[in-house]
Amino acid sequence: MKISELGEFGFIDAIKEDTLFNPDPVVIGIGDDGAVYKTSAGMEQVAVIDTMVENSHFIIHRTGDWYDVGYKAVASNLSDIAAMGGVPTHIVLSTAIAPDMEVDGLVSLYDGIKDICRSYHVNILGGDTVTSKEGMVITVAAFGEIEEGKAIRRSGARPGDIVAVSHTIGNSSGGLAVLLQNHDGYSQLKRAHRFPVPQVELGRLLVKYNCHSLNDISDGLASESNEIAKASDVRLVLKKEAIPVSDELKAWARESKTNVWKYVFNGGEDYELIFTMEPADFHALQAEYSDVTQIGVVRSGSGDVLLVDGDSESILAPTGWTHF
Ligand code: ADP
Ligand code: MG
């Protein structure tokens, strides 16, 4: 069946069950003009929003299925909340749907949305449903909470801090290349592209261990490290050989005769975290969460990134994924 046969209200009826995964703070959920929820004493609210456009952010059944689109549309938002040190609590979303879209695809899209919301105990509080002449546009806004005064900005990096990242960098854009070439294998890379993991748990530990500056890596390491350098008015000195890269990404770069660093620096959608903090705090963090790697240090400066590669040094330009 196509969405045009089911209609807007039929569609809302079909997806409105199973949307509250932390019902306590919810006063009014889907079904009224607006949703109403309680906030927690002593907490500030974090709001973020992200849009995904068919054939710009994803090519359906090529870079992923509808389930993945729903999952990722939420994941990118939860990642932004993690990158402030917050705990995500609710989402609202807008779906612009082509009239010939199959209802099965929409059910899959919502399965992806609901599965990630369930695993992060995030409520789906409402949304908007409109038609699109061509392709799907999905916009998700997410809300979260952070202890008063504790939100971690990009602008807090200080000379003497270490620079670190979580897990490995570049897998998602490597996975995108593998998917676009319809290549077998490389399941870790494909998975990183289709189902990125918002680093909420690590974001919370970064609050606990007095992290000075924090950014999620949505547009590649070059762009995100420059954002911290600029916002903090410092120089980040990164050591190329220290940057954690997965064996699978190295293998893919070898097989495809592409430069592995292109994925690391200029790829996107890893949704790992890059952060700076005092060395002693970093060591305390590592004792609790081992999968973080120091990749550099913060020096005084005026908003750039120096990349050290063996004996050579160069300024790392902020070239990553950008629209337009
Ligand atoms: P209104 O006309 O008052 O804006 P709607 O008729 O658009 O309300 O929506 C009815 C209810 O369904 C609202 O609670 C709204 O938040 C919810 N809703 C509409 N579209 C979606 C969607 N795509 N996903 C989740 N909830 C939705
Ligand atoms: Mg209304």
TrEMBL record:
Q: Which residues form the PurM-like N-terminal domain?
A: 31-146
| Residues that bind Mg(2+) 1 | D50, D128
Report the InterPro entries cross-referenced here: PurM-like_C_dom, PurM-like_C_sf, PurM-like_N, PurM-like_N_sf, ThiL-like
Which Pfam family, just one, is annotated for this protein? AIRS_C
Name the encoding gene, please. Answer: thiL
Task: Describe the task this protein carries out.
Answer: Catalyzes the ATP-dependent phosphorylation of thiamine-monophosphate (TMP) to form thiamine-pyrophosphate (TPP), the active form of vitamin B1.
Residues annotated for Mg(2+) 2 binding in this entry: D50, D80
Q: Where does Mg(2+) 4 bind?
A: D33, D80
Pathway annotation from the record? Cofactor biosynthesis; thiamine diphosphate biosynthesis; thiamine diphosphate from thiamine phosphate: step 1/1
Q: Which residues bind substrate?
A: H57, E269, W321
Q: Where does Mg(2+) 3 bind?
A: D33, D80, D216
Family matches, as SUPFAM superfamilies: PurM C-terminal domain-like (SSF56042), PurM N-terminal domain-like (SSF55326)
* Name by which UniProt lists this protein: Thiamine-monophosphate kinase
Q: Which residues bind ATP?
A: Y110, G127, D128, R154, S218
**What are the GO MF terms of this UniProt record?**
ATP binding; magnesium ion binding; thiamine-phosphate kinase activity
Please write the reaction equations for the catalytic activity of this protein: thiamine phosphate + ATP = thiamine diphosphate + ADP
Which organism is this protein's natural source?
A: Megasphaera hexanoica
The answer to whether keyword Metal-binding applies is yes
The note filed under miscellaneous reads: Reaction mechanism of ThiL seems to utilize a direct, inline transfer of the gamma-phosphate of ATP to TMP rather than a phosphorylated enzyme intermediate.
> Which stretch is the leader sequence?
none
Could you say which protein family the record assigns here? Answer: Belongs to the thiamine-monophosphate kinase family.
